[in-house]
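R.M. (postdoc): so does anyone remember the format we settled on? I'll just put the structure tokens first.
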């Protein structure tokens, strides 16, 4: 039996709500679906070791659950959301895989190197790197964006990908994969998300270039471009009236659920995607990326 994609997740209006950044899952209404009770694995990542940044909640949690159910051990990288991160670890372990938690700021190159070293120490290797951690904030005008916030956004969203990839690649064998989280904003930038959208454009370019650079090593590099996805990032970075109508501007008339992103990451991390490199997969609820 097939499901109607228009009703596969909650539809707006969402209750008006706001959180302080970085946001927490338990305060979201409605509760997002990370695939806790729906994702079914079939061994596509059996025996592999993955590092996922921003894995405490949202897309990162959904990817961690899917990877674990496909057979991968997971290092869960997160900023400071300890309770959310422990919940992600619970689902990884319930799938019979190892979960390792490591808090810290991916803006820091030393922390990024620590993440790679810890992954290798715990699992003996690193096969998959998912660069997913991100920061965004909504602003009505250019004058509202401080130099500090611009720098913070770039260091979190794109510098970290360079730091982590550079540290990981020397330890990756042929068949390994790097999967980056881009955004529909990489091609269709929202003016209210100027700093964030600019970094997402850079991520798309970084992905395409790095894929070519690493092809000789047998390491594939791709990215996923989410549209509006219901995660703690939304009420912690947008005004309550925007949250209420979040996702209405898609052809499917709703925001996506984190669980709806996970299969794209599994494809790009697994041997099913062996001839996919330098690509960007849109998961946008029907909004075209021009």
């Amino acid at each position: 039996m097939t499901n109607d994609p228009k009703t596969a997740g909650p539809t707006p209006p969402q209750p008006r709500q706001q959180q302080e950044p970085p946001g927490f899952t338990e305060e979201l209404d409605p509760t997002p679906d990370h695939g806790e009770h729906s994702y079914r694995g079939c061994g596509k990542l059996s025996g592999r070791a993955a590092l996922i940044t921003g894995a405490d909640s949202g897309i990162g949690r959904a990817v961690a659950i899917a990877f674990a159910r496909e057979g991968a051990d997971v290092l869960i990288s997160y900023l400071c959301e300890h309770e959310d991160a422990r919940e992600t670890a619970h689902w990884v372990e319930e799938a019979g895989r190892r979960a390792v938690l490591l808090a810290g700021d991916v803006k820091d190159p030393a922390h990024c190197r620590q993440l790679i070293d810890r992954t290798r120490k715990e699992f003996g290797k690193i096969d998959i790197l998912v660069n997913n951690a991100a920061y965004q904030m909504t602003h009505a005008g250019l004058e509202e964006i401080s130099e500090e916030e611009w720098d913070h956004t770039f260091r979190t969203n794109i510098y970290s990908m360079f730091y982590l990839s550079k540290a990981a690649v020397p330890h990756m064998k042929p068949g390994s994969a790097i999967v980056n989280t881009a955004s529909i904003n990489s091609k269709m930038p929202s003016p209210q998300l100027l700093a964030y959208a600019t970094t997402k454009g850079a991520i798309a370019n970084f992905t395409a270039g790095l894929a070519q650079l690493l092809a000789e090593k047998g390491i594939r590099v791709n990215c996923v471009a989410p549209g509006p996805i219901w995660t703690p990032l939304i009420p912690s970075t947008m005004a309550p009236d925007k949250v209420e109508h979040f996702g209405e501007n898609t052809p499917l008339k709703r925001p996506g659920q984190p669980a709806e992103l996970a299969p794209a990451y599994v494809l790009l991390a697994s041997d099913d995607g062996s001839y996919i490199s330098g690509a960007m997969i849109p998961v946008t609820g029907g909004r075209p990326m021009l």
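R.M.: ...and that's the designed sequence above, right after the tokens. Also worth knowing: The helical segments are 58-69, 82-94, 109-123, 147-168, 194-214, 240-244, 262-269. Strands lie at 49-53, 73-78, 99-103, 128-131, 177-181, 220-226, 280-283.
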